[in-house]
Amino acid sequence: MTGAVETGKSAGPFQALRGAIGPLDEDASAMLVAASADIALVLSSDGVIRHAAFSGEDVVPSDRKAWIGKSWSQIVTTESKPKVEQLLKEFPADGAIRWREITHKGATGDDLPVRFSTMPLASSGRVLAIGRSLRAISVLQQRLIDIQRSMERDYARLRQTEARYRQLFQLAGEGVLIVEAASLKIVESNPAASALVDTPTSKLVGRMLSELFHEESKAPVERLLGAVRGGGRPDDIEIKLADHPGDYLRLAVSLFRQSGAAFFLVRLAAVKGEAIRLPTRSYAASVVERLPQAFVVTDQDRRILELNNAFLELTDLGSQEQARGQPLDRWLGRQSSDLNVIASNLREHGSVRDVLTVIRGEYGSSEPVEVTAVTVPTGELPCFGFVIEAATRRPGSNPFGGETLPRSTDQLVELVGRMPLKDIVRETADVIEKLCVQAALRATGDNRMSAAQMLGLSRQSLYAKLRRYGLADQDFSADS
To answer: Which residue of 18, 99, 103, 377 has the lowest C-beta tally within 10 Å?
Structure first.
């Protein structure tokens, strides 16, 4: 700029204006402050507020009249008091502008976050504090956290739905094939379908659907698929298998879309020939016996009826006969109330999962475990089934899965009995603290100093929390 006066001091990018503007009268000074600030405070040298001005209703505190005559440090939160003292005492010698995030206490509990800078008024001995409201940023940060929580809840529901679908798909007695509508390749098969066509699932996936059927059945199947593709709802048909032409299957088809692609849901049921051979009880018992997790069946009084060898290893018992007829409470649970809570939930809900408790060995050892249990209320003898495995959750980890916060107080209530109260409170607080640290780092573009100020922490405290939550080496600048 022509006519700019250069000095030996550095006051940032606007240094070139020094001497070019000239002295300002009171009206011009007031307009300049109004244009650059949301809040302006004129303070005495000892920090008492003499005048206060606000740019709009959204930044006007409800108790603004009570500010006049009070010390600035009286109307801010505890963590902001040291920052106020710095702003009143530490004026940069080079004239540079230094900002501090200050949070004012609201009379109705609605705090007002403001980014302040101060400068001395040489003519009067007072101090001018210029502030820019951070309320909009705070609202955006809260929205970001709310959206993240909502996404995490939706993702958890999606995973649970997918898990249920997988379980039903695998356990269904009816044969089911998922077939790409465009290529007619089989992309999924359940065990019942594999048994019906006498082909392992690994060999079914990737094959053309037509390869399963006898030549005389291929044309009817193509007509059926064409009718379904055209929006019709044709009746089931009977077809012959290619490898077993003496066996007939009833075939039904429906169309669905997923991720922009169309798929056929092909259902198969036996008409003639051998029925599907399901695993016998002895075969299932052999599988349970070899499970790496401890498995126990009890009566409704929680006395042990059946168990596997993994339970013997957890309890240091020598044989299954030592446990049969004994109460499960003898080995499982911190105290008798643990199993009382589990049994109560089983009677009310039918099943519980991932309940944290301990299992005690015969010789005094103790180990944290997770218990998943189910009730079987029908049959000759109503019973409970328990699957017990060593707890894999590390200290300080989140019982809600990753960083997901409980969606409601109902979910917190459901944790009662699964975890001690102090663990529920501690781990919930840890999740909230980690989310706040991440939000501050994203909002400041990974500026650790600014993030610490935003959170009201010292840099040392922030770095300690970063190390605690495994965030020290992550880069949040790309998320800002």
So the answer is: 377
Give Cα 254 to chain centroid, integer Å. 35
Residue type, 340: N
Chain segment 149-172, per-residue pLDDT in tens: 888 888 888 888 777 777 777 777
Distance of CA 214 to the CA centre of its chain: 50
With H, G, I as helix, E, B as strand and everything else as coil, classify residue 478. Answer: helix
Does the CA dihedral 248-252-256-262 come out positive or negative? positive
For position 18, what pLDDT does the model report?
A: 61
Encoding tokens for residue 99? 């900002």
Which two three-digit tokens encode residue 435?
């989310």
Phi-psi region of 92 (alpha: psi -120 to 50; beta: other; left: phi over 0): beta
Residues 6 or more apart whose Cβ sits within 8 Å of residue 259? none
Angle at 120 between CA 119 and CA 124, to 5 degrees: 145
Strands (E), 377-436: 383-390
Question: 130: helix, coil or strand?
Answer: strand
Distance CA 371, CA 353 (A): 6
The CA distance from 63 to 107, in Å, is 6
pTM: 0.34
Question: First vs last Cα of the chain: how many Å apart?
Answer: 34
Dihedral Cα 464, 469, 473, 478, nearest 10 deg: -110
CB 79 within 8 A of CB 100: no
% of the chain exceeding 70 in pLDDT: 78
d(CA 227, CA 216): 18
CA distance 224 to 235: 9
Rounded-to-integer distance, Cα 385 and Cα 389, Å: 13
Distance in angstroms (rounded) separating the CA atoms of residues 295 and 312: 10
pLDDT in tens, 292-338: 889 999 988 888 988 998 899 888 888 888 888 899 988 988 766 67
Would you say 432 and 405 are in contact if contact means Cβ atoms under 8 Å apart? yes
**What pLDDT score does 355 carry?**
80
Quick one: three-class SS letters along 138-161?
HHHHHHHHHHHHHHHHHHHHHHHH
Identify the pLDDT of residue 452.
83
DSSP class of 365 = -
Instruction: Name the residue among 272, 181, 184 with its Cα closest to residue 228.
Output: 181
Burial readout 61-78 (b: 16 or more C-beta within 10 A, e: otherwise): beebeebeeebbbebbee
Question: Rounded to an integer, what is the distance from CA 362 to the centroid of its chain?
Answer: 39
Please state, as a whole number, how many other Cβ atoms lie within 10 Å of the Cβ of residue 38. Answer: 21
Q: What is the SS3 assignment for 122?
A: coil
